[in-house]
Amino acid sequence: MTNHIALFEPLMPANTGNIARTCAGTDTVLHLIEPLGFKIDDKHLKRAGLDYWDSVDVRMHADLPAFIESIPDLNQLYLVSKFANHDYSDVDYSDTSKDHYFLFGKETTGLPEPFMRRYPEKAIRIPQDDSHIRALNLSNSAAIVIYEALRQQGFPNLERSHQYENDKLK
């Protein structure tokens, strides 16, 4: 079982770099759906991901249909959108025999409306107060969702923090 984060036409290199760092730390595959709003060698992208890029399985897709075509089981696709009716925390991601794909939209416009209308049952949302903000930050949203999936899966293959040799915290 593998978890996947997919970014539809990301615009901001810092968001993508931060998400890449989260993917490196959680053994999550990162899918980038073109066109990107930056060059993959952008210095801001590298700075945000620091030296973790070698630890990330990054897969490029020419467009949204190419990404959808790459998913073996569309039942495991989740569209993250503030316009969804179901909260991300109400979905069962615990089946570790299947991959889980979390698709996030462009920072400015989200996922294309015609695409969302085609798959409304796959849409999940992170609750927020829309009277104060338009949307949560993309990298924060990706971290919230992937860690909920990992929590339900028992944090597979993630090591616990090493304790201090003298255990100074006790």
UniProtKB/TrEMBL annotation:
| Residues at which S-adenosyl-L-methionine binds | 80, 105, 126
InterPro entries, per the entry: Alpha/beta_knot_MTases (IPR029028), SpoU_MeTrfase (IPR001537), TrmL (IPR016914), tRNA_m1G_MTases_N (IPR029026)
Which stretches make up the tRNA/rRNA methyltransferase SpoU type domain?
A: 4-147
Q: Which reaction does it catalyse?
A: cytidine(34) in tRNA + S-adenosyl-L-methionine = 2'-O-methylcytidine(34) in tRNA + S-adenosyl-L-homocysteine + H(+); 5-carboxymethylaminomethyluridine(34) in tRNA(Leu) + S-adenosyl-L-methionine = 5-carboxymethylaminomethyl-2'-O-methyluridine(34) in tRNA(Leu) + S-adenosyl-L-homocysteine + H(+)
Sorted UniProt keywords: Cytoplasm, Methyltransferase, S-adenosyl-L-methionine, Transferase, tRNA processing
* Enzyme Commission designation: 2.1.1.207
Q: Where found?
A: Cytoplasm
Supply the enzyme class, top level.
transferase
Pfam families assigned to the protein according to its UniProt record, in alphabetical order: SpoU_methylase (PF00588)
Record has Chaperone as a keyword: no
What's the stated role of this polypeptide?
Answer: Could methylate the ribose at the nucleotide 34 wobble position in tRNA.
Q: Which family does it belong to?
A: Belongs to the class IV-like SAM-binding methyltransferase superfamily. RNA methyltransferase TrmH family. TrmL subfamily.
Name by which UniProt lists this protein: Putative tRNA (cytidine(34)-2'-O)-methyltransferase
Q: What species was this sequence derived from? A: Lactiplantibacillus plajomi
